[in-house]
Amino acid sequence: MNRRPASESFKLLRIEEDEELASQLGRIFSWVGKLQSLELNQEYAFYPPGLSLLAREDRVILFKERESLLSLAPEIKDGFFVVPRVL
Amino acid sequence: MNFSLMTIEEILKLQEEGKVTPQQVWEFFLKKREEWEPRINSFITTVNRMEGNGIPAGIKDNITVKGLPTTCASRILQNYIAPYSATAWERLSSAGFSLSGKTNLDEFAMGSSTENSHYGPTRNPWDLDRTAGGSSGGSAAAVAAGAVKFALGSDTGGSVRQPASFCGVVGLKPTYGRISRFGLVAFASSLDQIGILTTNVKDSALIFSIIAGHDPKDSTSSRAPVPDYSEIFAELPENFTFVFPDDELLERAEPEVRKEFSLFVKLAEKLGGRGKQVKMPLLDYAMEAYYIVANAEASSNLARYDGVRYGLRERAKDLLEMYIKTRTTGFGPEVKRRILTGGFVLSRGYYEGYYGKAVSFRKALASFMEELFSSAEFLLIPTTPHTAFKLGEKQEPLEMYLEDFFTVFVNLAGLPAISIPWGLINGLPIGFQIVSKWYNELGMFRLAYLMEKEISFKNKLIQKEV
Q1: Is B230 a catalytic residue?
Q2: I need a labelling partner for A38 at 20 to 30 A (CA). Which of B110, B202, B224, B462 fits?
Q3: pLDDT, averaged across chain A
Q4: Domain spans of chain B?
């Protein structure tokens, strides 16, 4: 089984050498693979009737309580998020 | 007075007439909560301050209420305090309802038993050794026990209807887009919908009429008109058409459930319905399509929990290590499994075969359902294959996923459905679903109400006076 597909979400989890998890995932992939036997038209977009791809107007709406958002961060300085060094 | 046995409308009328006060109503339900909560663990956070009419609501802890924790039952959000309220709660609060607390769930609404909660499982008030269902198990258990008058949940693949069936309450999943998702923490955005848990159909319709309707803060919320509550029950169906699945599909349910379901169908016929059995071959693939779509969207939605802007942060020497440590310790096993499978089905080389196929399947399923509802107004179908199972009974993830067989197709197609309690099998509740075409909640409520009156299900848990 491929343990490291090229996906950001994958890279951001450390999966220990866990045989049980590996076999569970193997069974899940094999199960969902059943869908491949269906012959379907390649129509990718799906919206329930009455809804289509609705985009909001492209304009900035300021959240009035900016400080309350920043206060949720594990660490901030001068209104910026602080993170460990990148390199 | 036993407010658990009344409709919300009846309680409000008594208040208007000056026969009861909001404080009396609030204290009645508070006593029930205090009596049940140590045994069922249906709340993550409780609130002890009454507001408005004193009629208490439980809000699933993946729906934000300003100033209160929204944990999603996850360690990664255990200290998160919501800076804004969900539109659904804003509307309920403006209508005068009180908040009794934030209810327990499977972590990020991923599960069918509430066993995936960082705060421990919710227990079914009908049998404390059994699950209340999931992922909105806390909401369903609290309503069933009479600890709150109603509750909000979220339904991505059956997470309102399945616990409703297990706990003997009414569970509504509206048409996709009917209720704003603003303030609902995203799991699978094209499937998620806020739902309602109540002890009766009238309350479900009342709460629906308050919280449904367009919200500019959610671009996927529908502009379709919402039925006025005062008109919903003005007339009831006399002659209606419905379909129900053929025996092959019903084999997915246990024999006792099939037997009870046949009586449910007979009741619909007795009430003037003309029923026809139909083949629904696509439903055999709905589970697989659901887990591909839901997990693909979850892997993207949950990328935001990285320890930078909110939530848990683990100390590390550099940014990448911080991301990895935070997510590895912050998420539970089921969430990790879903992120991994979601990432896989979206990855290069697998996308077309998995995700592409699943999205095409949704289109085919929606066309099939459209055709089905061109010949009948309703589809009747079981909600769950059996009654509530024992806590710890299902260890294999695949076995747990199959719990949602009768519910996920509704979410894939964006349809509305309501599960109503039918009766007891060996002392445990079982519910059945009425599904209808898009935006026909009104028709669905009317049939559900008509059937509810005939069924006259007695929830023994709420019969006792406080």
Answers
A1: no
A2: B110
A3: 76
A4: 3-280+379-462, 283-358
Interface test with B, best of A18, A24, A35 (most B CBs within 10 A): A35
Contact yes or no for B281/B287 (Cβ under 8 A) = no
Give dist(CA B148, CA B143) in Å, integer.
Answer: 5
> Range of A64's domain?
56-87
Determine the topology of domain B3-280+379-462 in CATH: Amidase signature (AS) enzymes (3.90.1300)
In a domain, A10, yes or no: no
Torsion-angle region of residue B120: left (phi > 0), alpha (psi -120 to 50) or beta? left
The token pair that represents B329 in the structure block: 């310790």
Active-site entry in B32, B60, B173, B394: B60
Q: Which two tokens stand for residue B277?
A: 């059995």
Which of B302, B307, B318 is closest, CB to CB, to A74? B307
Determine the residue of chain A that is closest to B80 in CA distance. Answer: A72
Integer Cα distance of B280 and B271 in angstroms: 25
Q: Which of B216, B302, B347 sits opposite A7 (nearest CB)?
A: B347
- Asked if A50's CB is within 8 angstroms of B346's CB, the reply is no
Between CA B124 and CA B39 the distance in angstroms is 9
How long, in residues, is chain B? 466
Where do we find the tokens 């990895």? Answer: B324
B176 chain-A contacts, CB cut-off 8 A: 48, 51
Q: How many CB pairs under 8 A join A and B?
A: 181
Contact B99, B59 (CB under 8 A): yes
Partner A contacted by B328 (CB < 8 A): yes
Length of chain A: 87
- The tens digit of pLDDT for each residue in B449-460 reads 999 999 999 999
Whole-model pTM: value is 0.95
Answer yes or no: is A86 within a domain.
yes
**Residue B150, Cβ neighbours under 10 Å: how many?**
25
Which among A13, A25, A46 has the least Cβ separation from residue B366?
A46
Please indicate whether, in this complex, the C-beta atoms of A41 and B337 are within 8 angstroms of each other. Answer: no
Q: Would you say residue A1 has pLDDT above 60?
A: no
A2 domain-assigned: no
Identify the sign of the CA torsion B429, B399, A7, A30. negative
Interchain proximity B398–A73, CB inside 8 Å = no
Residue A73 lies in a domain: yes
Q: How many domains does chain A have?
A: 1
The pLDDT tens digits of the residues spanning B236-285 come to 999 999 999 999 999 999 999 999 999 999 999 999 999 999 999 999 99
Q: Is B111 helix (H, G, I), strand (E, B) or coil?
A: coil
- Is the Cβ–Cβ distance between B183 and B158 less than 8 Å? no
Q: Is A54 on the interface with B (CB under 8 A)?
A: yes
DSSP secondary structure of B267-318: HHHHTTEEEEEE--TTHHHHHHHHHHHHHHHHHHHGGG-SSSSSS-----SS
